[in-house]
Design brief:
With 336 residues, the protein is α+β, with helices and mostly antiparallel strands. Helices cover 42% and strands 20% of the residues. The structure holds 3,4-dihydroxyphenylalanine.
Length: 336
């Protein structure tokens, strides 16, 4: 069915309509109840579920394009027959309005916001140009800590382009008092060797939950829930212990991608597991830096790599493809 949609799109884009009779036959042919597009929708109803997914989007694009052309041509004909149009060349081609769409990263961000909203998280954000204190100091990186090297970045005078969204945790905790239950999406920067897996800027969504009696079990269950919602029920995850100055204990979470295809092997360096986030229990020093009583309050935090999960979700093999703005890629997300 999909092979029939593409030529139809071309056909309607090239259609010539210069009289109201031609407009009416266009409507009958494509848009009426017995027209081609309605027939396609009838056939679509009969398709098995997995094919529906592939065909639904292009079919909707075809429909809205066909309707767009109809109204544009109709308006053109009506206005050309009205007074005051002398000297206007009505045969000039019209510029068709292409239906717009969200960038895949925005689609993923919106999805994550929905998932965490449903768990009671609020939304916040902070500046991309940060001072040393918010990006490092308050997060328990000492002046000469080697973890700073792993997050080498770009300096703007005294300030840095933030290396992670964890800085927004600090801004929030300095301003307000617990409980906090927040997600904080945004763009971050690192001085990286650019490759198919790493870029010098990328996106994270930070999570923070601070209250009395928050435990690692709460963290695990929340992340587990997010994965099942985002990637589907039954998606396997594993936690590996890790180190971040601002959490103790710290962990990284991987999800099972498998080793069945060459792409998956490359993506997971042959292990089948792909790291998607860092997390842990907020270090008492971080709470104290923000004047929060670490004897009374505890919390967890996490930072999800949004580009990674976008690549994984949509089978994009090179992180740079997310930033070329190539319409051949972006158009595939129209309507999502
Ligand atoms: N900021 C870390 C990074 O960019 C990710 C991270 C790890 C965020 C642990 C957290 C956390 O909030 O608790 O590599």
């Amino acid at each position: 069915m999909i092979e029939r949609i593409e030529p139809l799109l071309k056909e309607i884009e090239n259609v010539v309509i210069s009289t109201s009779e031609e407009l009416e036959s266009y409507r009958l042919k494509y848009l009426s109840k017995k027209g081609i597009i309605s027939q396609l929708f009838e056939e679509f109803k009969e398709l098995p579920g997995d094919q529906k997914r592939d065909v639904g989007k292009p079919l909707n694009v075809l429909k809205s394009q066909a309707e767009g052309i109809y109204s544009a041509k109709k308006e053109e004909l009506e206005s050309s027959s009205s007074v005051g149009m002398e000297g206007v060349d009505v045969s000039l081609p019209v510029y068709l309005q292409q239906p717009g769409g969200y960038h895949p990263l925005k689609i993923v961000e919106n999805r994550l916001i929905d998932i965490f909203y449903s768990l009671g998280f609020d939304l916040s954000d902070g500046p991309e140009i940060e001072d040393d204190w918010h990006n490092f100091g308050a997060l328990n990186f000492s002046e000469d800590h080697p973890a700073r090297d792993m997050q080498d970045t770009f300096f703007i005078g005294e300030n840095v382009l933030r290396t992670h969204t964890s800085s927004v945790q600090i801004r929030e905790m300095e301003k307000n008092s617990p409980p906090f239950r927040l997600i904080m999406p945004g763009r971050v920067y690192r001085n990286e060797a650019v490759s198919s897996r790493s870029n010098c800027f990328f996106h994270q969504i930070e999570g923070l939950y601070v209250d009395e009696g928050v435990t690692f079990a709460d963290l695990k269950q929340t992340l587990y829930y997010f994965v099942q919602q985002f990637f589907g029920q039954g998606t396997e995850v594993r936690f590996r212990s890790s180190y971040f100055p601002f959490t103790e204990p710290s962990a990284e979470m991987d999800i099972w991608v498998g080793t069945d295809t060459e792409d998956n092997k490359r993506l997971t360096k042959g292990t089948g597991w792909l790291e998607v986030l860092g997390c842990g229990m907020v270090h008492p020093n971080v709470l104290e830096s923000c004047n929060i009583d670490s004897k009374k309050f505890s919390g967890y935090a996490f930072g999800i790599g949004m580009d990674r999960i976008t690549m994984l979700k949509y089978g994009i093999n090179d992180i740079r493809d997310l930033f070329h703005n190539d319409l051949r890629l972006l158009r595939q997300f129209q309507g999502e």
